[in-house]
Amino acid sequence: MRDTKESRLLLVLLIAIAFALITVDIRGGRNSPVDGARQAAAAAFGPIENGMSTVVDPVGNAVSAVRDSDERHDRLAWLEKQNATLKAKLGSDDRNRSRLNQLDKMLKMAGEGQYGIKGAQVIAIGSAQGFSWTITIDVGANDGIKRDMTVLNGSGLVGRVTTVGPDAATVLLANDPDFTVGTRMEGSDELGFASGQGDRPLRVELLNGKAEVKKGDRLVTFGSEADRPFVPGVPVGTVSSVDPSHGGLTRTLYVTPFVSFTKLDIVGVVVEAPKKDPRDEVLPAKPKPTPIPTVTVTVTPSASADTGSDSGTGSGTDTGTNSGTGTNSGTDETDTNDQQR
């Protein structure tokens, strides 16, 4: 329709009529004069509206589904994030408990040996210096760490400090082939030198080639001059095998270290040596031997033995009785003869 003066008047007229009908409809309520027209329009346009609704509803449902899917996706993502957070927290709690246990064991060992230690955490394995068995710890010169200090944990000897930086240090582990430490046997005090062999047991050369050694014997550090690089009394390991003695000047042992060098986390650097040698006091208590049960066998007499015993007893009794009876008979006969005379 062209925008003319007549069309504008017609539009105004239609709007006025519409407002008039709305007013009449509202005032009439249920008895509205346009109610019949409304019903007729509903009957005429209802099927068309239903048809359009059938066509449009799937589209609307699809749009709602997409919107709800986004909400569900966001909800799922949030739940997954919460689950990951809880798992991380749980793992962190387990790790913290493990570290607390390691720290408790190390402090107990330090207390028994009277070692002044600086706690540290392992932050790297290996180093740029080319050592094959080393760790890096998160304490250094700023923490009072110096070269050639003993490093231990809650199980025993870990190694010695070789390189020191401001806030980190490198530790040569006791199982490194370049590592050597003086040792002393528990109880017998036999001295020797232990050397690392990588993932194999430590090799110990005892100075006494005729020393009496057996599997299960334990060793501790002998200590160094001025307690550097090793303080005395730190547990080293347990004898796992002994080479046969051939009359040599030394005797070779193989020792399983107390420390697991592949599971290092919390360690301690000995920054203050003990005032006296703790000797064997730092060694863990020996496991108690398992008692061997004893069996006591009680012999019960058999039925045949009981019967034989009864038979012998009865026979002896009966024989004595019969003999007495015979004697009485003889006496009675003699008396009778005397009377007849």
Plain-language structure description:
The chain has 341 residues and is of the alpha+beta class. Helices cover 41% and strands 22% of the residues. It has three helices and twelve strands. It has helices at residues 5-28, 35-113, 303-340, and strands spanning 116-125, 134-137, 150-152, 157-164, 169-173, 180-185, 191-197, 200-206, 218-221, 235-242, 251-257, 266-272. A six-stranded antiparallel barrel has the order 1-2-5-4-3-12. A six-stranded antiparallel beta barrel has the order 6-7-8-11-10-9. A hairpin with a 5-residue loop joins strand 6 (180-185) and strand 7. It is elongated. The termini are far apart. The model is unreliable at 308-341 (pLDDT under 50).
Describe the secondary-structure layout.
Elements: H1 5-28, H2 35-113, E1 116-125, E2 134-137, E3 150-152, E4 157-164, E5 169-173, E6 180-185, E7 191-197, E8 200-206, E9 218-221, E10 235-242, E11 251-257, E12 266-272, H3 303-340
Antiparallel strand pairs: 1-2, 1-12, 2-5, 3-4, 3-12, 4-5, 6-7, 6-9, 7-8, 8-11, 9-10, 10-11
